[in-house]
Design a protein that fits this description.
Layout: H1 3-29, H2 33-56, H3 59-62, H4 68-90, H5 97-114, E1 126-127, H6 133-143, H7 147-160, E2 166-167, H8 177-196, H9 203-225
Antiparallel strand pairs: 1-2
Length: about 240
Amino acid sequence: MTPKLRAYFVHLFTATGAVFAMLAMLAAVEERWSLMFAWLVVAFIVDGIDGPLARRFHVQTHAQKIDGVLLDLIIDYLTYVFIPAFALFQSGLLPGWTGWAAIIVITFASVIYFADTRMKNPDNTFAGFPACWNMLALVVFALTPPFWATLGIVVLLAVAMFSPLKFVHPVRTARWRGLTLPAAMAWTAAAALAAFYDFAQPEWVSLTLMITSIYLILAGPAQQVIPERRRLGPPG
């Protein structure tokens, strides 16, 4: 297979995320929440794999006719923002005006964030909360906190999108990757199990979701507070 063909196959792999988004949306319309999140987890896995593949096969060099960054952003908005916001509203977990407030805040703030050219920092962290509303929605479905707590978290994270806080990328952020990547993998496994159990999951799954979610949210800000150790070169 030629380098050009491999590069275009990476784009096609990324584009499958749009199919999984449609399948998730169809499940959401029917209020089949476990199935919806199962498809979102599949899309999340694709999103985690396609980036390393794109860099490995140099898609910007061999497949320039397709903008992989734009393709990824379109799919991410559907799977990270639009469908999770609909689920929070339609499920009744945010009743009355709180549901309207949440979907307006999430969709409006996120579309501005996705268009912000300063989304990524030089150290491969995100500048501000990276609009991972799919992760928040799944945790809310699994743990069912009080609606006022959910709304408060939505507002705080929406504000954090435009703050100077950093948020780690589980694959690309080099610092603490040895902890961040396993945490992201554990979160994904726990999320899949919660959906499999139709959100009547065992307590250890809920605990895994809580611990890994807290770590993934706070790791970036913690890195801003904790100075990085400088590596000492060889003597001489």
